[in-house]
């Protein structure tokens, strides 16, 4: 037997020695995952040649990241987000046919039981922020309107906070709502102009961003989950293209097709109709859903 | 501007978009580390195409691993160990000139303040296990003995436990000792034959090993740190080549050159000299230290 047959580890055969131990694994997918993870980890180590001290720094970084996770904080998801891994997994799982709206990350602020509201309702419950009216159509890739599409929308307020981050300050379910389209596929509702906000940056991931010279901000956006019978569910955002962070979203969620137009409107008659007091923002944005077979 | 210039993320340009954010990092080594880590992570994701559920499983595995770490348990080091990463980092940092003894992992059971003992002392303080006498020389690569070499040795007992794992059961500093060579470079001490033992396998890493069909055992070994003025410090083990797990060390620590000969001796006169009652084990093993300039 040579060193390889004996299973002894060397720099040269490190990947084969480690992955060959999984020969009898019954879960073929897990075996494959660990084969790739081991190979890529070893490739990274061989390319970087970390010192023992650097290796220990990495161990302690992962440990601090784990210790920062609790019931309401998921620092490993944040790490995945800032390294573009979350967006990559999203992209791979949501390759859309031509013409369909693109997806982006769900984020941690969705709430399952937001109230269903009549079309046109104002989801801003505390009258804070700059008024905004948002509308558009839910369409198939054939351009036909989709009836009974369910639009679940949520957004941060004008200071960059979601209701769940400011319990007792914002009303429950502030800036959240569920709407259902009629035969024309049209949706519309009233809200406030959202603002950019930082991801939680007081933990190990925030410190890493700081050490890399990166800011923690996400450009202003509204979140959507759009469901309709016979169509693939779409989880996405629309973004304000004039946001200062539009080209440097800390979690890489921006796509060209997700830029909406935020138009400022000065029209007292229309404002009055909408229950607004002065200038307001207007966004028109259609969403196109793909069918599973497309 | 095309999508790339705008910094918008796509499957194709994911690595470049993420790593270009670190352009202004002042710590060049950290920048390089994150460039390689990001690239290898994205390569792994692109090769595996994980589902959202698999991604979440990975997040939760890392979270559980972090939550298992505490003052006396380091589950991320264990993860690094079972994936061969610890041994790879050790190998990269301890490339030895021809003829020098090879290193292996330190492990978590070293204690800094073990007592210095007179040459020949018995480090077994509780008379449990099969008697063993171990000796050899500390040499330079030129074959000359090294005087004043300090040999820090520690081992598990005949049931596979270190003293620090059985406080109150084993005496403090059981099976540990520090010896110093004379002009002849010779060392020797008495001990007991060590036994294979499992790495801690009641946490996420143990569960992963189980799911991969891997056992958690390390073959029987003694640990050494050998220091001498003018030479590189050597952190290593010697292993029992007849151990049932010698070809499948859970942490990949075995190297061909670290196999010692554990000979059973039946010699009443010699046993009597050593203070042993019957048959005993004998190990002769030389260690060769490299100079930094070699």
What do you see in this structure?
The structure is a homodimer of 294-residue chains. With 294 residues, chain A is α+β, with helices and mostly antiparallel strands. The first copy, chain A, folds into 2 domains: 14-81, no CATH class; 97-289, Protocatechuate 3,4-Dioxygenase, subunit A (Sandwich). Chain A is built from 7 helices and 11 strands. In chain A, the strands form 3 sheets. In chain A, strands 1, 4, 9, 10 and 11 form a 5-stranded mixed β-sheet that branches. A 4-stranded antiparallel β-sheet of chain A has the order 3-2-7-8, with no helix packed on it. Chain A has a two-stranded antiparallel sheet with strand order 5-6. In chain A, helix 1 (14-20) runs antiparallel to helix 2. The model of chain A has no long low-confidence stretch (mean pLDDT 95). Chains A and B meet through helix 1, helix 2, helix 3, helix 4 and helix 5 of A and helix 1, helix 2, helix 3, helix 4 and helix 5 of B.
Give the CATH H-level superfamily of the largest domain in chain A.
Aromatic compound dioxygenase
Which CATH architecture of the largest domain in chain A?
Sandwich
Largest sheet composition of chain A: 5 strands, mixed
Assign the CATH topology of the largest domain in chain A.
Protocatechuate 3,4-Dioxygenase, subunit A
Kindly report the oligomeric state of this protein: homodimer
GO molecular function, one term (chains A, B): dioxygenase activity
InterPro entries (chains A, B): 1_2-HQD/HQD (IPR039390), Catechol_dOase_N (IPR007535), Intradiol_dOase_C (IPR000627), Intradiol_dOase_core (IPR015889), Intradiol_RC_Dioxygenase (IPR050770)
Pfam family, one (chains A, B): Dioxygenase_N
Protein name (chains A, B): Intradiol ring-cleavage dioxygenase
């Amino acid at each position: 037997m040579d060193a390889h047959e004996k299973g002894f580890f060397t720099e040269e055969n490190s990947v084969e020695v480690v992955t060959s131990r999984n020969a009898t694994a019954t879960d073929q997918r897990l075996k494959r995952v660990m084969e790739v993870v081991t190979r890529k980890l070893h490739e990274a180590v061989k390319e970087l040649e970390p010192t023992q001290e650097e290796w220990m720094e990495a161990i302690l970084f992962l440990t601090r990241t784990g210790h920062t996770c609790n019931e309401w904080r998921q620092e490993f998801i944040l790490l995945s987000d800032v390294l573009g891994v979350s967006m990559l997994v999203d992209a791979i799982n949501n390759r859309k046919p031509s013409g369909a709206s693109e997806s982006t990350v769900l984020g941690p602020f969705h709430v399952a039981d937001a109230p269903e509201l009549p079309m046109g309702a104002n989801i801003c419950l505390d009258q804070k922020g700059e008024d905004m009216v948002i509308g558009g159509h839910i369409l198939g890739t054939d351009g036909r309107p989709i009836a009974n599409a369910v639009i679940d929308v949520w957004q941060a307020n004008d200071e960059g906070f979601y209701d769940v981050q400011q319990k007792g300050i914002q009303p429950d379910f502030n800036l959240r709502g569920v709407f259902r389209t009629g035969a024309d596929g049209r949706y519309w509702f009233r809200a406030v102009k959202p603002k950019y906000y930082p991801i939680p940056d007081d933990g190990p991931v925030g410190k890493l961003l700081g050490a890399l010279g990166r800011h923690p901000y996400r450009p202003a956006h509204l979140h959507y989950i759009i469901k309709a019978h016979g169509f693939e569910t779409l989880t996405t955002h629309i973004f304000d293209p004039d946001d200062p962070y539009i080209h440097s979203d800390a979690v890489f969620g921006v796509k060209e097709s997700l830029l909406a137009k935020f138009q400022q409107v000065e029209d007292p008659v229309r404002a009055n109709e909408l229950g607004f007091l002065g200038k307001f923002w207007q966004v028109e944005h259609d969403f196109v859903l793909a069918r599973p077979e497309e």
